[in-house]
Predict the structure.
Amino acid sequence: MPASRSSRTTLSAVIPVDAPPIDIMEDTENPDSDPFGGVAPLDIIDDDEDDDCANICLPQSEMVPTFALSGSSDEKHVKAAQQWQNNITGVGQRFESVTQFRESLRKYAIAHQFAFKYKKNDSHRVTVKCKAEGCPWRIHASRLSTTQLICIKKMNPTHTCEGAAVASGYQATGSWVASIIKEKLKVLPNYKPKDIVNDIKEEYGIQLNYFQAWRGKEIAKEQLQGSYKEAYGQLPILCEKIMESNPGSLATFTTKEDFSFHRLFVSFYALLYGFEQGCRPLLFLDSIAVKSKYQGTLLAATAADGDDAAFPVAFAVVDSETDDNWRWFLLQLKSALLTSCPITFVADRRKKLKESISEIFQNSFHAYCLHYLTEELLMDLKGQFSNEVKRLLVEDIYAAACATRIDGFQRCVNSVKSISPDAYYWVIQSNPENWADAFFRGARYNHLASNFGQLFHSWALDVQDLPITQMVDVIRGKITELIYARRAESSQWLRRLTPSMEEKLEKESLNVHTLQVLVPNGNTFEVRGETSEIVDIDLWECSCKGWQLCGLPCCHALAVIGCICRSPYGYCSRHFTSESYRLTYSESIHPVHNIVRPLQPDSSQGIITVNPPPTRRPPGRPTKKQYGQQQEVVKRQLQCSRCKGIGHNKSTCKEIRAEE
């Protein structure tokens, strides 16, 4: 725009701005765009508005529209009228940008319940008129010379359309909806689009469609949380800051050949130290789907602390759950761990982790997760069983897993065979040495499932909508809260063992009075009760395997310990003591600050680029399948009340027809 046109505007005659500037996030490079199609096609007309309006300056009293809200409409939209009816005050009002002017104009129109259309709309001038046919209301604003300020230079404030209410959402762009719901979204992260539609209709009289509400929510989330795309670019500095603020931690990431995100691994030193000092050599591996904009999967390694509560050790965010990503996760976990003792891993056998575990963690053990094992059984034999039969099969498999002797295991699988021979052969071929206590050589301390404690499962619900850097920071915050809470709680403990272990030990001691300890043969004792068991007091072993499986003396061992007048605490695993528990939570995780990627003027240093993964969230509403829920739901089969047969009812029973 030539400088001579705008220079004819007299700045001394400008009316001060009453309303504070509004922070609006909008693409000023393409001001003609409207995400909902609310902007009519621009009519290119002669740019004579600046010449005509430069000398026009109506009195302030004439800037008020000639209509007013009344009746029930006034009560319905009182909030909008109070907030925005003076957003536009008249000729001479200045705005910091054309975007701010458009937003103020939009709110002004909503407050006064009329629709407008653009006649000119570009980066330096905007001309708008009332959409009603024949209504003279019109406003024109353009840029002041040598500045970015936008000034109203002409305005006809008179409406002859009587301000007909607009309820179609014509002026409700995504940025406007975002500005309305942003504060409420901070308090209610699960604010649903349908609730946004209802609230804006009730408060402002604007009828949005579902997509407008959803799009406004997405814009507001990005304004509050930051850009998903930019978050991936901040991963290099995030990993660097984590290891800088928490020495001894491991944070690393990889990209693919096209520099798209592949995987991220994080383990804080406080967790690695706590696992080595106070936790049993037992890790649970599990995965949780992340339903974010770019999807992904959260891989987690969790331990059990001395009070039998979940203790996070490490986690990773990967583009998808694959065998290669699990192997990479285990390699990073191996390099991060401070211990070299054999570890028992409880994980899903479908992830094919057995080879990776045996190769990366030598002399360690892989116990199959019973939850996923039974799910796999029911999936492979789907359609054959009713829900009641399924329940009985699962109970028998769990009983077989907990049986400490081979004969007990065989009784349980024979019970499975009586229900279904197919299920029996499936169980026999499922490598019982990896899940049945009668054969398993590792120590899983009576923990049968990999989703132990559901710790990361519950956290995943809170972080799945966040950009990846904030996802990591929120998980860090939750782990920090967990450490402080349990540290404070354990400082009040007065017993030698943790509360849950004290309770188990007391419960086991109730069975001692019915047992008889025979004369020992060296350090080996025979204990008689319902069964006869052999206890080796030096090796901490009992033939019932209860002592070896849980780390606490069983009732037979307690009977022997009492007979030789010793304290049972001396025969409990050190991991169950209150002292070890406090060591587990003795270290703290320090916050990570300033992860915004700095500008690097020296191009020779190079900038690591990380782009979002190519996967995107599919269209449509996500499924509401809960974590741990069975994948297949089989309908209840019909059962005849007369012949007790399966697959028909009494009215179609062939035996009744034969009798007739």
Remarks:
- The first strand starts at residue 94 and ends at 95.
- Residues 234 and 597 are 6 Å apart (CA to CA).
- The two ends are 99 Å apart (CA to CA).
- Confidence is low (pLDDT under 50) at residues 1-74, 598-606, 625-635.
